[in-house]
Amino acid sequence: ALEVLFASYNAIERVSAVEGLPLRQLHLYHNQLTDVSALRALTDIEQLYLHDNLLESLRLDTFVPMLELKTLTLQRNRLRTIVTGNANKPLVLPRLEQLFLQYNQLPHLDTGLWRMERLRVLDLSHNQLGYLLTFLEELPALRTLGLHHNPWHCGWLFGMLERVAARELDADDGSIGFDEEASCPGIRLDDRLCCNENASTPDPVLLLVSRTGIVDELQQQIRGAKRRIETLEEAQRKQTHQFGELAGRLATIEQLCTQRPTDTN
Length: 265
Fold this sequence. Notes:
- It contains 2 helices and 15 strands.
- It is of the alpha/beta class.
- The chain folds into 2 domains: 201 residues, Ribonuclease Inhibitor (Leucine-rich repeat, LRR (right-handed beta-alpha superhelix)), CATH 3.80.10.10; 47 residues.
- The longest helix is centred in the last third of the chain and has 55 residues.
């Protein structure tokens, strides 16, 4: 069966008719793709290479059917918009370990509903990001984070760097620095990280929308936990009643066994 397909450097503009292919690896980098929605049919894929194409917008829920997906490369496209999917519905990619989004044109990115429990590497460098709506608490396995070469808001960046230090993440290991002073109009923290106190700040409405999905999910989990507790309590009540009946029977039997026969003489 065909498990690995190299189709890079072919000026491919559109992908279709991939249903039923048992691919584990698909190399489509250095083409002219503007839409990859048809790839959702590749449910066995583990490594998907889509970098160096012409993607301007992307729905991440395209990859949700790919339950085995571990590596996804999207760097050096023209991405300005990444949509998680349906509003307030968590985006679950259970095996994804590496996600590369560097060298795009992203001004915003909402990770609040990302559920990628194994994601270890996330590269957001070389975009137009001023802030994220979270501090990436939703990515518990994260170990390497690329933040450099973005016009971060200083308040958000300082908060993020505190969490990077607390979680002992490997952040900003890129070797390319800013070539000119003008390329960092704000505060330069090192050769790669720059922030601006006048940069865009999180919109409270967007922040509320982002958090609403998280709150809804937590409320569902709480309701489920309450139902399980009620079930356990009911089972405990039944067991207590049964134990009481059994104890009563045992006491009766014990009493009968200890009674002496009445002397009739």
